[in-house]
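Sequence only, no structure available. Ideas?
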Amino acid sequence: MLSREDFVFTIGYDGPVAVVDSQAKQRYGSLSTRELAEKGFFRAAYASAVYAHNQEEVKLVTEIYHHIAGAGYEEKTVDAPLDRLFGVFPVEVQRSIAL
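Reply:
I predicted one. Tokens follow.
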């Protein structure tokens, strides 16, 4: 399974391998879900919440996103509309490559 940092900064997949933005991971990998959202890294923040399987974090990201972007998405479960918006889905891969 991927580490949290690899999952959060995955930019795509090459077959069974996650492609990770190594510069973003190095620079922002230690930030919490809240810190990522407050800095405007909504995709990374949402990925962090999904990785943690934490509904409170999903709600937090949704609230911060609504406040800043003025959007009207509802947070229902981890399978919320934000999955499609940010392209974040739980995926079981074992390896990653860094770009």
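The longest helix spans residues 55-69.
Hope that gets you unstuck.
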